[in-house]
Amino acid sequence: MKYIIGIGGMTNGGKTTLTNRLIKTLPNCYVIHQDDFYKPQDQIELGEDGFKQWDMLESLDMEAMLNTVLEWLNNPMKFARTHGINIQQNSQESNSDDTHILILEGFLLYSYNTCNYKVPDPPGLFDGHIWPMYQKYRQEMDNNGVDVVHIDGLKSRDELYHQVLEDIQNTLLNRS
After folding, report:
1. Which of 144, 146, 157, 147 is nearest to 113 (CA)?
2. What is the rounded distance in angstroms from the CA atom of residue 104 to the CA atom of residue 160?
3. pLDDT score for 114
4. CA 64, 67, 71, 73 torsion: positive or negative?
5. How far apart are CA 163 and CA 55, in angstroms?
6. What digits encode the pLDDT tens for the residues 63-95?
7. Hey, which residues does 7 pair with through a beta bridge?
């Protein structure tokens, strides 16, 4: 069985922190970080506000990311060998050998977070660009009826981790 889990949200929202905890717990778990698919800096547009437009879909090589996902779907074990990933059997389930989990992690994979952004940025970057881009792409997901589980970004990291892990484990246990 193959499962793909998307962990998304705005820039600096805790996606990588959650992902890193999950991959240590889940069996045969792989991760693809959307940040690894940025186009070269000279291909990123400069906005009217003077900032590079990193938080726009056009800043990413989504075709390359999709091809990487398809490579995993085709053969997760070959994907692991090709990418130098050491897969550990973290689950106590005896049938975890046939379960493979891919976590897609990125800022355009959408989960609802309350804005708790505390990274010092040049004035106007967050309010003028990061937050509006997040809202724009999240609205597109809502309009397209994408099934998204929303989590409360005000909960502690431990609470979020346990909630997400429990949801994933329930899905694995209830598979047909």
Report:
1. 157
2. 17
3. 43
4. positive
5. 27
6. 899 899 999 999 998 998 888 877 655 444 435
7. 105
